[in-house]
Amino acid sequence: MTPMDGSTRDEAKGAEDAANGAAPKSGAVQDGGVEGGAAVRRRSRSGGRLRELDLLRFVAAAAVMLHHFTGVPAPEWPGGSARKIFPGLGEVTRWGFLGVELFFLISGFVILMSAWDRRVGDFAVSRFTRLFPAYWVSVCLSLAAYLAFRSYVSFGPNTDGPIMRFLPNLTMLQEGVGSQRMEVVYWTLYVELHFYALIALLVWRGITYSRVVAFMTGWLLLSVFAVEADFGFVKVLLLWRYAPFFVAGMGFFLVYRYGGNLIVWLLIAASWALGCYYDLKYQFPDFIVPGVSEYVIPAGVTFVFAVMALVATHRLAWLRWRGLTLLGMLTYPLYLVHQTIARTLVPRLYPHMSRWAVLGVLIAVALTSAYLIYRVVEAPAQHRLRVRLKLALAQIRRNGLPAPAADGTGGAATERPARDGTGDADRDATTRPVPDGTAGDAERDAPARPGGDGADSDGAARPARAATDRDAAARQAGDGAEAASS
Fold first, then answer.
1. Quick one: how far is CA 30 from the chain centroid?
2. Tens digits of per-residue pLDDT, 202-240?
3. Lower CB density within 10 Å: C or N end of the chain?
4. How many Å is the maximal CA-CA distance in the chain?
5. Banded model confidence at residue 155, pLDDT cuts 50, 70, 90
6. Could you give the angle at the alpha carbon of 309 between the alpha carbons of 305 and 311, nearest 5°?
7. Contact indicator for 423, 441 with CB cutoff of 8 Å
8. What is the 3-state secondary structure of 223-249?
9. How far is CA 220 from the centre of its chain?
10. Which of 195, 186, 199 is nearest to 122 (CA)?
11. Distance CA 289, CA 295 (A)
């Protein structure tokens, strides 16, 4: 999708969107009868990156990192507990696991933003290129730590060793096949994959405001029914334990983009209530402090929900410092490698350095490693991988036929595929949507609306859909298109 010029074209686009069941881009009445004027006035000030989300992501990663460095049982420290080495700080950082809940809220927000106006293949490519380059580096570093120092995460007897875990972990599907994680934090990535699969179903059906609200409602209720019935397969499928956080994140994005809606706010409130209860009742035993957790955990969940509500209502849009973008870029590799670094360095440093000096070294090495992974591996690998995957996707959409040449003679195209809107929005999914129908970084030059280049409100394809899909595939194969964004 490219920005449109001229009021006539804007009006034509608005009429087409209304026919397709898409949300209006201006002050028109939206799905469910929501008047968009006030929301549009708020959104008109929000062009550019959502640097407030860059900051929140980094804060969440830092909370998890300090949780693992100082607030948990950790065999690399003498006595098997980092909390005993840092008794004062550890009593605070033991609650750092709540950073994961913030991550899932942000994920619900930004993944819905990234998926809007995309087809399934484009959504899958954007997610694959976002997750896997840095993840593969992390898995290889974990294996190298084992080979060089015999440093690895032990999950007890009769479990796979690091060598046996390596290949399943490269797929990110180790949890599903019964292997163990190379690093403890990888469990959240498998949860994210579940979420992406569910969102892909929504993308396949075609994302509109009303469908998202229906999806959120159905997901939340069915996950509760699955818990009630103790239906194992459905509980796994619907991510019952973390569904409230993803659903709430999606709701916050709807509020951010379209303005407040009582039904959406009620869904967010229900998700908050369930999230508080789940976090308290089904938490890891070591994270529970009798007489304290009953207050701290609900307060922590309430706090992260409140912060996301500030984002959704544009009250943190004043956070404009460009350095926050870099912090956002460091978040993912920092999250992936910090435990590998601690497990490898602590036994070699602590006998010779004070605990605070060791902690300082761990933080410095973790941040430096994250920066190097982002600059040297992640950014260039995402660009190259995206180009090749888009070419492969275009060939699949052509049923294996060669791409048409620029002169229309049928030869193989050599140009790079069309820009798919994956720039900053795919690297860190924190780019602001622009409300008036012109695409911001999150939606600029995105592929046709899910379901083809035109679908009516109930998903039925227009007669010209096949032809336009073929045209889109040709454009993506590189026929006169822009270079893929880095």
1. 26
2. 999 999 999 999 999 999 999 999 999 999 999 999 999
3. C
4. 75
5. confident
6. 120
7. yes
8. HHHHHHHCCHHHHHHCCCCCHHHHHHH
9. 19
10. 199
11. 10
Residue 141: predicted pLDDT: 97
Show the tokens assigned to 304: 């992260």
What amino acid is encoded at 437 in this protein?
G
- Give residue 387's pLDDT band: very low, low, confident or very high (50, 70, 90): very high
Angle at which helix 120-149 crosses helix 162-171, to 10 degrees, equals: 160
Contacts of residue 445, Cβ cutoff 8 Å, sequence gap at least 6: 1, 2, 418, 419, 420, 421, 439, 482
Q: At CA 442, angle to CA 441 and CA 448, rounded to 5?
A: 110
CB atoms inside a 10 Å sphere around CB 382 = 25
Distance of CA 291 to the CA centre of its chain: 34
How many residues does the structure list for the chain?
A: 486
Burial pattern 207-241, b for ≥16 Cβ within 10 A else e, equals bbbebbbebbbebbebbbebbeeeeeeebeebbbb
The number of helix segments (H) and strand segments (E) in the chain equals 20, 0
Which positions ≥6 away from 371 have C-beta within 8 Å? 330, 333
Read off the tokens for 415: 């140009």
Quick check: 120 and 205 in contact, CB under 8 A?
no
Token pair of 178, please?
Answer: 């019964």
Q: Helix, strand, or coil here: 81?
A: strand
Nearest to 454 by CA among 466, 446, 442, 443: 466
Six-digit token string for 196: 């992406």
CA nearest to 420, candidates 396, 450, 390, 395: 390
Helices 262-281 and 243-258, axial angle in degrees (round to 10): 150
Q: What b/e string do you get for 174-196 counting C-beta neighbours within 10 Å, with b at 16 or more?
A: bbeeebbbbbebbebbebbbbbb
Quote the CA–CA distance of 215 and 220 in Å, as a whole number.
8
Assess whether pLDDT exceeds 90 at residue 15.
no
Helices 323-349, 120-149: inter-axial angle, 10-degree rounding: 30
Tokens of 436: 């008036």
| Both structure tokens of 182 | 């190379």
Specify the residue for token string 């500030």.
310
